[in-house]
Amino acid sequence: GFCLGRFGERGPASNDIKYPLDVTVTSDGHVVVTDGGDCSVKAFDFDGRGVLAIREGFCLPWGLDATAKSEVILTDSEAGALYRLSADFQRGELKKCQMIRSRLVSPRAVAVCQSSGAVVVVEHLKAPGPSKGSTRVKIFSAEMELIGQMDSFGLNLVFPSRIYATAVAFDKEGRVIVTDVCTQAVICLGKPEEFPIFNPLISHGLSYPVGLTYTANNSLVVLDSGDHSVKVYSS
């Protein structure tokens, strides 16, 4: 692909991005980024002008996703919390920053279902010794009630291989999709009410998938850090 523009250069200015961890685009056309460098959430318009920077109260903001109403659901990995941000991005005004879930274990990737409002979060569980630990996928309803959860150990009892989830998304039908770096695959875990099922969507051609999203025409875009590429798959 061709680069259409760039902004948020690394630097000391308030609109600079020091260490980006995740990005989303709201339905009203604003780009929102978590910056681990100064523990903030920053919003830009599509021309790259900084419209809002939220620095108060976060320990390590990590993953984020926009809702259909242009609100932002955000994980704070160090605080073990999930937040909902409401803002008037046109005016650069934060309306509300509400903690909607606490006592999570190092939550990172998060996704919001645009149709139902359900939220899925990937927690990173620490393990003793040199092991990098495991992950746990939690699904919440739009009212933030826990619908289901499954960790790597539990998935391993049901599925043929260990899963270490690095990214998560909902497809257009409301199914939970995760990237798995253990099997170098993209896997469908089903809808919240049938979670978990095991349906590999992409099992070849990936090296170390760490991000994914769906486009408006339902193509699946996968970020592969193993060979530093963006790969696009048809539905």
Automatic annotation (TrEMBL):
It comes from the Eukaryota. It comes from Leucopsar rothschildi. Gene3D superfamilies: TolB, C-terminal domain (2.120.10.30). The keyword Hydrolase does not apply. SUPFAM superfamilies: NHL repeat. One of its GO terms (cellular component) is nucleus. One of its GO terms (biological process) is protein polyubiquitination. NHL repeats lie at residues 4-47, 204-235. One of its GO terms (molecular function) is ligase activity. Coiled coil: none annotated. PANTHER family: E3 UBIQUITIN-PROTEIN LIGASE NHLRC1 (PTHR24104:SF47), E3 UBIQUITIN-PROTEIN LIGASE NHLRC1-RELATED (PTHR24104). InterPro entries: 6-blade_b-propeller_TolB-like (IPR011042), NHL_repeat (IPR001258), TRIM-NHL_E3_ligases (IPR050952). The lineage of its organism: Eukaryota, Metazoa, Chordata, Craniata, Vertebrata. Keywords: Ligase, Repeat. This is NHLC1 ligase.
